[in-house]
Write a structure and sequence with these properties.
single chain; alpha/beta; Urease, subunit C, domain 1; TIM Barrel; 2 domains; eight-stranded mixed beta sheet; four-stranded parallel beta sheet; 12 helices; globular; binds zinc ion
C-alpha cells in the first residue's frame, strides 16, 4: 500500500515538500519525495492530496477501566469484575477514531487493561496498542488503592514486580506520593509512599526483567526518592525543582506531566470537593515544574490521565493543547505525543515516527498541525498496523 502526495511531520520535525509513503504489512517500507506522475491512480494507492501525514498519536497515561465520570473510582468499586472488563473494552474502542494508535495504561483493577491489550494484539478487537502496567504497586493505604496491589517491605515489592511481569506488564507503575484524587481522608500530595528499600527493590527487579518503572509522584521528597532509586519516568511531577530537572535530563529520566487534568480538576464543579481543593493548590507549581523540565531538556511525553474524574476518553488533544499553553512550542507539543512518546515506551524508531522499518501507525489530517494544533481534530484517515481504520 502507498499513501502519496502528503506533507510530513515525522515525530521530530516538519519536512518541506511532498512525500510518498510505502507500507508493507504492518511496517513502513520507504519514505521518498513525491513522484508527481503515475502513482496516485495505481491500485492500492491512497492519494493524500496534499494532506498532512504524521505518526499515530500516543497517550502515555490513561486509565481504561475508569469512565471519566464525576467519581470513577467509586463507580468501578461498585462494579463486578465482568463490568470492569466491559468498561475497559468500551473505552479502548474510543481511541483509534481519534488518531490515537497507542496508549499506556497506568493502573487498572484486576489487570483488565492488560487482558484487553492482549486481545487487541491478537486481532480479536480493533483498538490501539496498549502498553499496560496492570495493577499498580502501592504501600498499604497508599495512593490509588482502587487499582493498586499493596506491597510492604522489599520482598513483597519483589513479588509485586514479578507478579506484574508474569501477567505481561510492559511497565511497572508505582505510587510514590499521595495524590489529588484518592483516599478522601489522610492522603496529602506531599506524603511519601513506599520506602527507600522498597523503591530500590522494585527498580532493581524490574530492570533485571527489562521492564521500565514509572511513578505517580507529586511532592518533592517523593520525586527525589524516585530519582535516587533509579526511576525511568515521573508522572505528574508538580514539585520538580530546577536541580531535579537537571538530574532527570542527565540521567535520561522522562516526565509525563499530565498537565491538562490538574488545571481541569481545579476548575471542575462536578468532581468531589476534596480533590478540587487539592488540585487548586498545586496548579501553579505544576506550571513552574514543566518550565524547569523544558529548560533542562528533560524528555517530555504527553499523557492525559483520561478516565479520571470528569475526563472521558480520549483526552489527549486537550493535553497537547495544554502543553502548548504551558510553554512548549507547537512542535514540542506534537513531539510529546509522537516521537518522545515512542522513546518513553522504549520503542524509539518504531513507534511515534515515520521512517522505514517503523510500525505503520499513521494519521492523515486535512490541515497542518504545526500551524494550529486544532488540526488534530480534523482526521481524514487513520492507519493502525498497516491497515486503514474505518472511522
Ligand atoms: Zn493516573
Amino acid at each position: 500500500m502507498q499513501i502519496c502526495n502528503v506533507h510530513l511531520f515525522d515525530g521530530e520535525q516538519r519536512h518541506s515538500g511532498l512525500f510518498d509513503i510505502h507500507i508493507e504489512g504492518d511496517r513502513i517500507k520507504s519514505v521518498i519525495p513525491h513522484a508527481s506522475v503515475g502513482t496516485t491512480d495505481a491500485p492500492d494507492v491512497i492519494d493524500g492530496a496534499g494532506g498532512w501525514l504524521l505518526p499515530g498519536l500516543i497517550d502515555l497515561h490513561v486509565h481504561l477501566s475508569w469512565n471519566g465520570g464525576a467519581d470513577p473510582a467509586t463507580d468501578i468499586s461498585n462494579a463486578s469484575e465482568e463490568e470492569n472488563l466491559l468498561e475497559t473494552v468500551s473505552n479502548a474502542l474510543n481511541y483509534l477514531p481519534h488518531g490515537i494508535t497507542s496508549v499506556r495504561d497506568l493502573g487498572t483493577p484486576h489487570d483488565a487493561a492488560l487482558h484487553v491489550g492482549k486481545a487487541i494484539a491478537r486481532g480479536k478487537l480493533p483498538g490501539p496498542r496498549i502498553f499496560s502496567s496492570g495493577m499498580s504497586l502501592i504501600m498499604t493505604g497508599g495512593h490509588d488503592p482502587f487499582h493498586g496491589l499493596p506491597v510492604d517491605g522489599p520482598w513483597e515489592a519483589l513479588k509485586g514486580v514479578r507478579r506484574q511481569v508474569a501477567q505481561g506488564a510492559q511497565v511497572i507503575k508505582i505510587s510514590a506520593t499521595g495524590g489529588v484524587y484518592g483516599r478522601t481522608e489522610g492522603e496529602g500530595v506531599d506524603d511519601t509512599e513506599l520506602r527507600k528499600e522498597e523503591l530500590e527493590m522494585i527498580m532493581d527487579e524490574a530492570h533485571r526483567r527489562h521492564v521500565p518503572v514509572t511513578a505517580h509522584a507529586i511532592g518533592e521528597m517523593g520525586i527525589r526518592a524516585c530519582l535516587a532509586a533509579g526511576i525511568d519516568c515521573i508522572e505528574h511531577g508538580h514539585f520538580i525543582q530546577p536541580d531535579m530537572a537537571q538530574q532527570m535530563a542527565t540521567q535520561g529520566i522522562a516526565l509525563v506531566p499530565t498537565f491538562y487534568i490538574y488545571q481541569h480538576l481545579a476548575a471542575s464543579p462536578t468532581i468531589p470537593a476534596y480533590a478540587r481543593q487539592k488540585a487548586v493548590a498545586v496548579t501553579e507549581q505544576h506550571r513552574r515544574a514543566l518550565g524547569y523540565a523544558r529548560q533542562a531538556g528533560v524528555l517530555i511525553g504527553a499523557g492525559s490521565d483520561a478516565g479520571s474524574p470528569d475526563t472521558p476518553h480520549p483526552a489527549l488533544l486537550e493535553e497537547i493543547l495544554a502543553l502548548e499553553d504551558g510553554g512548549l512550542s507547537r512542535i514540542e507539543a506534537l513531539c510529546a505525543a509522537t516521537g518522545n512518546a515512542g522513546r518513553i515506551l522504549g520503542c524509539g524508531g518504531r513507534l511515534g515516527t515515520v521512517r522505514p522499518g517503523a510500525f505503520a501507525d499513521l494519521i492523515l489530517l486535512n490541515a497542518d498541525p504545526c500551524q494550529n494544533l486544532h488540526a488534530l481534530r480534523d482526521i481524514r484517515l487513520v492507519i493502525a498496523a498497516g491497515r486503514p481504520h474505518q472511522c
